């Protein structure tokens, strides 16, 4: 049995006012090409197909186009669950009808998890689909007031799964899983917290019975506790905190005993997301690029219209900030003279030079001094 494990598409994602739809279509084209090449038996999407409960029209169209090509044209089944960004009702609508055509989607948590059963040369493979559900939903579905956090909720879900002894079992879910259910940092600033106060973490120990656990929610691909419990990560970068992530998906091959071989396939973005650092004059000598850049300026003096200047080289620049310099206390400890705060005359000279590409002459500075004294005198009165 061969299947692809992907997650966290976040179609319709908006980053710093820029929709990522064009880039998402670009990487999903590569994903579809890989399906044509590898001919997997199934595709897993482990939650967060959309970035919001009511996605923009372009995002809905993109998902429709992708599923049409994978499920209908390539005859490859897709197995998916809703994530915390998705609308359960939106994804659940028409699910019974779509199953007949090879699209298996679980939007809402059900009281009984019925597996999707596929067969290969070795027998049955059971895919158990568990959409994102917070403890309050689980309490309502199961009528169990002892469900107080995400770990006890997941435990209740798994306890109701029937494990057929002669079958192989794959879990598909969306949760924050850590080795022992203890707090760990998110892998990206774009991941929405599931809860506060440590209630969101789920122990990887709960998934020991499954031959493979396909997870979504964390945006960096990695395994948890052992190599059969994995996050595929997002297919492209959605935050500068993901700058060093290697984005892609997993190709999973399972033998007759349930042993898995997992290979990472990278996806190449249309525009990378990265940090650019330096003084403005230096940045303006860079080779032009369409990457999404977050700029850290090292200039000690203010720079006028910095975004306008940066966009002459990086038209898709998303953010500019001044790099925090060394503090006066640090400089003093290092025996370095601390530069005094520039006075009004220095600030004027800098502003005039930036606006006119030349320094002010003596007469201009005299007029500035007169106006400044008049303003200060008026303030004193």
TrEMBL record:
InterPro entries: Calcineurin-like_PHP, DNA_Repair-Maintenance_Comp, Metallo-depent_PP-like, Mre11_N, SbcD, SbcD_C. Gene3D superfamilies: 3.60.21.10. GO terms for molecular function: exonuclease activity. This is Nuclease SbcCD subunit D. CDD domains: MPP_Mre11_N (cd00840). Signal peptide: none annotated. SbcCD cleaves DNA hairpin structures. These structures can inhibit DNA replication and are intermediates in certain DNA recombination reactions. The complex acts as a 3'->5' double strand exonuclease that can open hairpins. It also has a 5' single-strand endonuclease activity. Heterodimer of SbcC and SbcD. The keyword Hydrolase applies. The gene is sbcD. It comes from the Bacteria. PANTHER family: COMPONENT OF ATP-DEPENDENT DSDNA EXONUCLEASE, NUCLEASE SBCCD SUBUNIT D. Keywords: DNA recombination, DNA replication, Endonuclease, Exonuclease, Hydrolase, Nuclease. Residues 270-355 form the Nuclease SbcCD subunit D C-terminal domain. Belongs to the SbcD family. Residues 1-220 form the Calcineurin-like phosphoesterase domain.
